[in-house]
């Protein structure tokens, strides 16, 4: 069997050789898409290592953090994916796929970045792609020289014949020596032989068609009415090939035909194909020759003086005359070349030698000699000496000239003469015929090719451009014959050309000449049998052994004749087998299968597409040997489906092209002009249609693995288009949209189950929910929740990839889609697929949530994960799974908020009962670093509340950040309250509840709850403030406790944070939040008033003591005497100043306490301003009551000290004492007046 397959492949290779050597139907296409080099396992591993090295910082490529994150996502999500490994194994992955996937990923990232001045996003994309290319190629590629281009790497280019030969040797497994033997056997270097082979092939196909028509041995057709059409198409195919062959140019130098031969019509009959064409005219076979005449030197010139000037002229009969340069007679050498063009096969070339005439009356130069040559195309090309004819009485009788005459043979001149024993060329044959050359005579013959299908045997006379007689060669049989010495005299070796009604006999003097001429006439005449290997040829071979020089002088054609008849006879069965005897459909199927196998195994990611060279050879084979287009595409489609079923990546567009061709042919649309449909073609098409239907459904079901990451680009779109075409009953009736939609829906539902089961295996959670309940009970609830969370992340990754690579509407930018809205329902079906996929996950999620404790809040990260993805997807937002997710978590959220509200209220109540009002500022730095659960543990509410406190979730990054304000220095209870309220609202914001009404309800509830809590905090703070002030005295020794400052800070924090915690929508803000602001403002004002009143009590005590010095009282006289006595004592430097000093110290120390404890500057200024105003008002009232009295010196001295110190301290606090304060100005005027009066009485001013 292997030997039979080898013989079949050798026979196929023979036909392929002829298609490559002489194509006349097809050309190598230049508009095919270039295929990329495929990535193998080793290259994939190297790429992974390069990206890992970059992510580890081991390369010198600089990049920012954003690019690093994008590359890390690409590495984790793509390079390490199992589907990429499958792509590489299938041979459909290229470096361009890696690049396009990364580009698609970063485009979404870059588009979401904010605009940067002076840097466009296109520039960022270009920079990132350049860095990606550098990482992908690696740094070592810059130091490594590029590898040499191999044949496989050049297969995407236009290949030469030698490269095509080498490629198909590999495809068919032909060895080099076998190729050489077949090459020589088929005479592939002889273009004339190849053209003759085509003519013989067409003749054989014509005879086969006539036999089929005569014997009615037609293949089984779909309808009996197609039999005449089938026969007519057989004739048309032969006519078309003949027309293509005749359309090829024959000669570059031949004159254009005056009369074009009539081409066969595409619908001509078989009898028309056998008729002769019109008779050729003599003007149709004009030839064009190029002659090169080189004059080298002249010898034997002795009669002239050495200094005489000589020159030569040259001319061709009927042409212009040329002249060489001048030379001296002592050295007549030139080496000058003259170029001529003539249409005479036997031209006359004249070369003359002249010397310049020295006579005065001489009109012409003197001719010294001449030579006349009659060269032919087979004449020697080297320079030779020729004796010149000299004038009479010339002393130079031995005058010779050395000339080289080269006459090139035009391309359409095939044979003219042969070689003699010495290697010289003859140009004449003896001939006699019945229609032409009726006299046995020696003539000069030339075999001329007029067109690719028309040859003529012409005889010429010397100096004539047109042939004397010609014979059009059509259907002649050539054979050797014995000499006829009695009847035909002349020549030694005879052969004749025979046709019905005509016989032409030729003879020549040389056996090799006979072999050449017979072979030429046989080739031109499309003879049905070649000249036999007669005894003369055998003698020639025997003579060649004896005389090696004779054999070596044979032309290549003679060598082939000898070789064919001798040692290479065993290869003749392949080279000379008539192509019409083979089933070319079967041979082409084998050729195409081997070619596809070679293509799929080369270094390119071809996806089933042939290379340009392979397409060229296959097209030429089908056209030349009559392989029907439907059979070709059926076998191609079957081979492609074989590879696709074995997990190889095949371009669906390629399947679509072949299927559409076959469907159009079977349904009678004639895609290639062939209308007859055989029963074998129809049955094969129907079988492939059923097989293709199953394959396409499998591809749609496994779209994540058949088209991983959307590669090949547009493959899923093409698959849907092909699926629609396969469902069509014929080529014109469209498929009902609902049928295709239901089919795709069914495939996608099955795809959802398949993808989820594979995802479970990947996540190491085997079995469905029902099967899984029992083993899951053995695990803890936290472990089950972690597994479901991990499974949810994987599910969202799958959905995200589907959305990026498969969710887009495939109706855009696909040439196979003839309706603009062809697949507008595809996004809807992908949404249903996603819902089905999530419904499978729903069972696992519900089971895990039911296993959680009733007071466990660890499931909120799962909601946040799923909801953030679903709400961002326009197709899944508000879907069935999204609604179910809300229904599951609504009770949890409501219960969590209820418990948190109760917990915060109880902690607020307990906290204020145990509040010490110590400032919390030292604790703030610790709280910044604590997580939510740690902060809750810090205050240890478990000992206060009867139930465990629901901790705010710690999964949100925004919640992990501390919400304690940097300037906050309130109490522990207030800071804990504000932090919890803020954390609870941030928790709700992070949930991003999708249903707007419920989200608004929750927000309003939290805002109202925050308002109630802040209200309670303010009222409890005010109550604690009143209690603290009631416990303090009114003497100048009293100092403000720091707890009062903390209370002010609590109120300021409440006012500042209520704008965030309690703000509702604009309608309710006026009704509720304004009430909180009013309450806080009223409380602050009341507390300031109370504190100022408390401070004023000390001043009133001071003024009461000064009242004892009023003028006219008994106590005033005693005190005045005591004061005067103290002045006389040297130990008392400033008697009576202790009272003022005590009050001034009281004011300054309490101002310092307020400045250090209260963190709000505006509050301090407001407090100090009211305190100063109340103090000045009290002094002013006290002085007004004593307008009729003169102040005692002690009173005056004390008040001056108090007023000056108080105003000075107020300015140090940043306030102006005289700003809109009438009491202060009145006091200053009264004290100034009293001081002046006292100075007049005492003779000097008061101290201070």
UniProtKB/TrEMBL annotation:
<keyword id="KW-0770">Synapse</keyword>
<keyword id="KW-0446">Lipid-binding</keyword>
<dbReference type="GO" id="GO:0016079">
    <property type="term" value="P:synaptic vesicle exocytosis"/>
</dbReference>
<dbReference type="Pfam" id="PF25341">
    <property type="entry name" value="C2_CAPS"/>
</dbReference>
<dbReference type="InterPro" id="IPR057457">
    <property type="entry name" value="CAPS_C2"/>
</dbReference>
<keyword id="KW-0813">Transport</keyword>
<dbReference type="InterPro" id="IPR011993">
    <property type="entry name" value="PH-like_dom_sf"/>
</dbReference>
<dbReference type="InterPro" id="IPR014770">
    <property type="entry name" value="Munc13_1"/>
</dbReference>
<dbReference type="GO" id="GO:0098793">
    <property type="term" value="C:presynapse"/>
</dbReference>
<feature type="domain" description="MHD1">
    <location>
        <begin position="843"/>
        <end position="1021"/>
    </location>
</feature>
<dbReference type="Pfam" id="PF06292">
    <property type="entry name" value="MUN"/>
</dbReference>
<keyword id="KW-0472">Membrane</keyword>
<dbReference type="GO" id="GO:0046872">
    <property type="term" value="F:metal ion binding"/>
</dbReference>
<dbReference type="InterPro" id="IPR033227">
    <property type="entry name" value="CAPS"/>
</dbReference>
<keyword id="KW-0268">Exocytosis</keyword>
<feature type="domain" description="C2">
    <location>
        <begin position="272"/>
        <end position="389"/>
    </location>
</feature>
<dbReference type="GO" id="GO:0008289">
    <property type="term" value="F:lipid binding"/>
</dbReference>
<dbReference type="GO" id="GO:0098978">
    <property type="term" value="C:glutamatergic synapse"/>
</dbReference>
<protein>
    <submittedName>
        <fullName>Calcium dependent secretion activator 2</fullName>
    </submittedName>
</protein>
<dbReference type="InterPro" id="IPR000008">
    <property type="entry name" value="C2_dom"/>
</dbReference>
<keyword id="KW-0479">Metal-binding</keyword>
<dbReference type="InterPro" id="IPR010439">
    <property type="entry name" value="MUN_dom"/>
</dbReference>
<dbReference type="GO" id="GO:0012505">
    <property type="term" value="C:endomembrane system"/>
</dbReference>
<dbReference type="GO" id="GO:1990504">
    <property type="term" value="P:dense core granule exocytosis"/>
</dbReference>
<dbReference type="GO" id="GO:0045921">
    <property type="term" value="P:positive regulation of exocytosis"/>
</dbReference>
């Amino acid at each position: 069997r292997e030997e039979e397959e080898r013989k079949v492949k050798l026979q196929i290779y023979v036909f392929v050789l002829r298609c490559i050597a002489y194509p006349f139907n097809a050309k190598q296409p230049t508009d095919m898409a270039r295929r990329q080099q495929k990535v193998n396992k080793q290259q994939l591993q190297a790429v992974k290592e390069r990206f890992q090295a970059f992510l580890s910082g081991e390369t010198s490529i600089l990049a920012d953090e954003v690019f690093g994150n994008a590359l890390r996502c690409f590495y984790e999500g793509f390079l390490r994916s199992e589907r990429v490994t499958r792509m590489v194994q299938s041979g459909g992955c290229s470096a361009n796929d890696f690049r396009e996937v990364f580009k698609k990923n970063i485009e979404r990232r870059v588009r979401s970045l904010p605009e940067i001045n002076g840097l466009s996003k296109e520039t960022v994309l270009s920079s990132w792609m350049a860095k990606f290319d550098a990482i992908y190629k690696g740094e070592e590629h810059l130091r490594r020289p590029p590898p040499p281009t191999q044949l496989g790497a050049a297969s995407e280019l236009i290949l030469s014949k030698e490269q095509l030969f080498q490629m198909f040797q590999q495809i068919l497994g032909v060895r080099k020596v076998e190729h050489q033997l077949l090459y020589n056997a088929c005479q592939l270097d002889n273009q004339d032989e190849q053209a003759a082979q085509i003519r013989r092939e067409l003749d054989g196909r014509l005879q086969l068609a006539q036999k089929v028509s005569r014997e009615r041995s037609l293949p089984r057709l779909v309808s009996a009415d197609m039999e005449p059409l089938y026969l007519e198409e057989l004739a048309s195919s032969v006519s078309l090939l003949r027309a293509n062959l005749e359309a090829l140019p024959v000669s570059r130098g031949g004159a254009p035909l005056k009369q074009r031969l009539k081409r066969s019509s595409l619908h001509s009959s078989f009898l028309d194909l056998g008729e002769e064409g019109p008779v050729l005219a003599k003007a149709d076979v004009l030839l064009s020759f190029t002659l090169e005449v080189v004059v080298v030197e002249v010898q034997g010139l002795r009669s002239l003086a050495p200094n005489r000037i000589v020159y030569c002229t040259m001319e061709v009969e009927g042409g212009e005359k040329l002249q060489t340069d001048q030379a001296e007679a002592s050295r007549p050498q030139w080496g000058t070349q003259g170029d001529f063009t003539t249409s005479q096969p036997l031209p006359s070339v004249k070369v003359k030698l002249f010397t310049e005439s020295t006579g005065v009356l001489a009109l012409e130069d003197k001719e010294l000699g001449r030579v006349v040559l009659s060269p032919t195309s087979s004449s020697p090309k080297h320079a030779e000496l020729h004796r010149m004819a000299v004038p009479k009485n010339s002393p130079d009788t031995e005058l010779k000239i050395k000339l080289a005459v080269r006459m090139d043979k035009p391309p359409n001149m095939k044979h003219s003469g042969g070689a003699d024993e010495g290697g010289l060329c003859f140009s004449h044959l003896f001939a006699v015929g019945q229609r032409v050359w009726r006299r046995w005579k020696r003539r000069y013959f030339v075999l001329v090719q007029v067109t690719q299908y028309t040859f003529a045997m012409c005889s010429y006379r010397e100096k004539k451009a047109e042939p004397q007689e010609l014979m059009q060669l059509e259907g002649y049989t050539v054979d050797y014959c014995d000499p006829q010495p009695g009847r035909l005299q002349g020549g030694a070796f005879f052969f004749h050309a025979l046709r019905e009604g005509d016989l032409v006999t030729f003879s020549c003097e040389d056996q090799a000449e006979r072999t050449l001429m017979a072979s030429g006439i046989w080739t031109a005449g499309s003879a049905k049998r070649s000249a036999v290997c007669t005894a003369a040829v055998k003698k020639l071979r025997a003579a060649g052994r004896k005389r090696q020089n004779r054999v070596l002088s044979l032309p290549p054609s003679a060598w082939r004749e000898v070789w064919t008849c001798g040692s290479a006879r065993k290869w003749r069965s392949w080279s000379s087998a008539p192509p019409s005897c083979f089933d070319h459909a079967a041979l082409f199927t084998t050729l195409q299968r081997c070619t596809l196998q070679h293509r799929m195994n080369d270094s390119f990611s071809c996806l089933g597409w042939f290379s340009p060279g392979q397409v060229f050879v296959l097209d030429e084979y089908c056209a030349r040997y009559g392989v029907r287009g439907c059979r070709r595409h059926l076998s191609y489609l079957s081979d492609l489906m074989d590879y696709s079923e074995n997990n190889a990546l095949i371009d669906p567009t390629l399947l679509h092209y072949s299927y559409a061709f076959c469907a159009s042919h079977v349904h009678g649309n004639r895609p290639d002009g062939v209308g007859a449909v055989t029963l074998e073609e129809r049955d094969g098409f129907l079988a492939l249609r059923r097989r293709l239907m199953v394959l396409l459904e499998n591809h749609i079901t496994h779209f994540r693995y058949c088209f991983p990451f959307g590669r090949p680009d547009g493959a899923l779109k093409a698959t849907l288009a092909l699926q629609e075409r396969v469902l069509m009953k014929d080529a014109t009736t469209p498929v009902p949209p609902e049928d295709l939609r239901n089919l795709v829906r069914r495939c996608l539902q099955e795809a959802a189950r398949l993808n989820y089961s594979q995802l479970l295996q990947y996540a190491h959670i085997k079995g469905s929910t029902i099967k899984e309940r029992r083993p899951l009970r053995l695990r803890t609830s936290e472990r089950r929740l972690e597994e479901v969370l991990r499974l949810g992340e994987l599910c969202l990754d799958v959905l995200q990839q589907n959305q990026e690579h498969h969710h887009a509407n495939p109706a855009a930018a696909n040439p196979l889609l003839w309706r603009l809205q062809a697949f507008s329902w595809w996004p809807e079906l992908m949404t249903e697929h996603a819902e089905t996929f999530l419904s499978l996950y729903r069972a696992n999620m519900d089971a895990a949530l039911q296993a959680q404790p009733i007071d466990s809040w660890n499931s909120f990260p799962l909601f946040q994960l799923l909801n953030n993805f679903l709400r961002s997807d326009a197709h899944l937002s508000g879907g069935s799974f999204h609604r179910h997710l809300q229904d599951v978590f609504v009770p949890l959220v409501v219960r969590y908020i209820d418990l948190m509200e109760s917990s915060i209220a109880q902690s607020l109540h307990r906290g204020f009962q145990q509040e010490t009002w110590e400032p919390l500022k030292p604790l703030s730095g610790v709280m910044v670093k604590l997580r939510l659960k740690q902060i809750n543990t810090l205050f240890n509410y478990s000992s206060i509340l009867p139930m465990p406190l629901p901790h705010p979730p710690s999964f949100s990054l925004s919640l992990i950040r501390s919400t304690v304000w940097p300037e906050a220095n309130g109490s522990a209870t207030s800071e804990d309250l504000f932090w919890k309220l803020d954390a609870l609202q941030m928790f709700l914001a992070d949930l991003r509840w999708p249903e707007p009404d419920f989200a608004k309800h929750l927000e309003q509830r939290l805002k109202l709850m925050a308002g109630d809590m802040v209200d309670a905090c303010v009222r409890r703070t005010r109550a604690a403030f009143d209690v603290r002030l009631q416990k303090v005295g009114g003497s100048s020794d009293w100092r403000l406790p720091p707890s009062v400052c903390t209370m002010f800070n609590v109120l300021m924090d409440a006012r500042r944070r209520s704008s965030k915690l309690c703000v509702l929508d604009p309608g309710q803000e006026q009704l509720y939040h304004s009430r909180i602001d009013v309450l806080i403002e009223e409380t602050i004002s009341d507390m300031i008033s109370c504190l100022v009143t408390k401070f004023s009590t000390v001043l009133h005590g001071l003024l009461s003591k000064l009242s004892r010095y009023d003028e006219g009282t008994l106590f005033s006289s005693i005190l005045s005497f005591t004061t005067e006595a103290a002045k006389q004592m040297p130990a008392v430097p400033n008697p009576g100043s202790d009272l003022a000093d005590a009050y001034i110290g009281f004011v300054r120390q309490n101002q310092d306490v307020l400045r250090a404890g209260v963190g709000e500057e505006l509050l301090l200024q407001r407090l100090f301003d009211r305190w100063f105003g109340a103090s000045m008002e009290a002094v002013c009232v006290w002085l007004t009551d004593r307008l009729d009295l003169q102040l005692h010196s002690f009173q005056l001295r004390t008040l001056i000290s108090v007023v000056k110190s108080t105003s000075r301290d107020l300015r140090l606090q940043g306030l102006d004492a005289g700003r809109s304060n009438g009491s202060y100005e009145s006091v200053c005027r009264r004290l100034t007046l009293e001081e002046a009066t006292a100075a007049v009485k005492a003779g000097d001013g008061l101290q201070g």
